[in-house]
Amino acid sequence: MAKLLNYEVLKEAGYDGYILEKAPVKVLQFGEGNFLRAFVDYWFDMSNEKAGWNGKVALVQPIAQGLTKFVNDQEGLYTLYLRGSENGEKIDRKRVISVVDACYNPYDAADWEKIKEIAKSDDLEYVASNTTEAGIVYDPESKFDQVPPTSFPAKLTVLLYERFKAGRKGVVILSCELIDNNGKELEKCVKQHIADWGLGEDFAKWISEECLFCSTLVDRIVPGRIRDPKEVAALTEANGYEDQLLDVGEVFGVWYIEGPEWLAEKLPFKKSGLNVHVVPEVAPYKKRKVRILNGSHTGFVLGAYLSGQEIVRDCMHNDTIRGFMNKLLFDEVIPILPLDKEDCEKFAAAVSDRYNNPFVDHQLMSISLNSTSKWKARDLPSLLEYVEKFGKLPQALCMGFAAYIAFYSTDIQRREADGLICKRPAGNEYKVQDDDWALDFYYERKDADDASLVHDVLSNLQMWDQDLTQIPGLEAQVLRKQFS
């Protein structure tokens, strides 16, 4: 039986990649799950190798049940596989990540005290977090003297107060939670706790003037686990060790951090030549991601499924579908984005590689969930802005809109508790899943003629917050593309 991964076992296995065994802890990270280890910790680990950053990350288990024991049993080491496609070539890269120093469970009183000591350290420079979308919330039930306080913002407030009392300099906080303005929302919660707990004006001033709460935008798909026992066994044999924390992410990754220019020089990523960028604001890059990556997904998958496709990768090998996606992105979406055109085109080119990932069978039906709200958020804004800017209708986006309506209305069979059952042109049934009101809307119109259905969809204020039939030519264009 293979030995559990640690530094000694790694040496015995003959691993010849980069490893840094000892270094000061410079990052305190809330979260020890797959995403942070394949994303934030990866970037810092690469900075150790590429720029001599010479730092370690201390992990904090954010909830009562977590990975502390697994991390510490392996002395912080774990294997990361980055898999996907780059410029059409299959990529499968292995790296043993050695940036993690240890993991601590704050629900253990002794560990909570150790976390406080790290918070007071002269070496500490950054706090990173991904505590899920529900993590950045103000919880009035969280108390200063709890061990630990219940919420993440409350825990952070206590630790920053310990640092302030110790006379240390401020830190940079890098929030990776998937909410808008994640850093600013976290700062608001911290300041609310300072006020409620009466921690003083001097501390509040220190937070405002010496600490930098950065909103960030993260982009890397992290499947995390390898579920095939045979593949796990084969990797264990090939590596020469057992890894309880083995992690898998897509090869593509980019991190945008909102902050002043000096932060780009302070962080080690620019010196390392990594795809991590300090920008004045992340909102334009989020817009780019939503419109290009998410918008292309929603734009082509529904029509692709009706045409007979099952997974995203196969769509990238279909000239018609790939051509449609490229027209949508390069001719209609990119021209209206408020960012450098060449940069957007590079991002869009990478999308094809990401969709062509040979390691992921991304089902079109899984992407189809809740497509009404997705179309409203991801594609409709591009359509409206294109019309406003160019004074004409975008052909591919109109086609995508028609495909959305067709997906929800093709040969409706019945309404079930959890979905609307339709029948594909090939003959098999499929289940449309969305909010009940949206499904009821389409089911009630299952016998409507084509023109009435399109009119009712476009004029539905609950769906779009506006009457889209008022856009000149849109109703006729969607009707023509869907039913001609």
State the CATH class of the largest domain: Alpha Beta
Looking at the overall shape, the CATH architecture of the largest domain is 3-Layer(aba) Sandwich
Largest sheet: 8 strands, mixed
- Widest sheet: strand ordering: 5-2-1-6-7-8-10-11
Number of strands: 14
CATH H-level superfamily of the largest domain: NAD(P)-binding Rossmann-like Domain
Total helices: the number is 23
Secondary-structure-based class equals alpha/beta
Rg, Cα atoms, Å: 25 Å
Helical percent range?
40-55%
Which regions have little confidence, pLDDT < 50, spanning 5+ residues? none
CATH topology of the largest domain: Rossmann fold
β-sheet strand percentage: 15-25%
Return the domain count: 2
Shape: globular
The separation of the N and C termini measures 64 Å
If you average the pLDDT, what whole number results?
96
What's the structural blueprint in terms of helices and strands?
Elements: H1 7-12, E1 25-30, H2 34-38, H3 40-51, E2 56-60, H4 68-73, E3 78-86, E4 89-97, E5 100-104, H5 109-119, E6 126-129, H6 152-165, E7 172-175, H7 182-197, H8 201-210, E8 212-219, H9 229-239, E9 247-250, E10 254-258, H10 261-266, H11 269-272, E11 276-279, H12 283-306, H13 312-315, H14 319-333, H15 341-355, H16 364-367, H17 371-378, H18 380-390, H19 395-409, E12 414-416, E13 419-423, E14 429-432, H20 436-444, H21 450-458, H22 461-464, H23 474-483
Parallel strand pairs: 1-2, 1-6, 2-5, 3-9, 6-7, 7-8, 10-11
Antiparallel strand pairs: 3-4, 8-10, 12-13, 13-14
Helix pairs in contact: 5-6, 6-7, 12-14, 12-17, 12-19, 19-23, 21-23
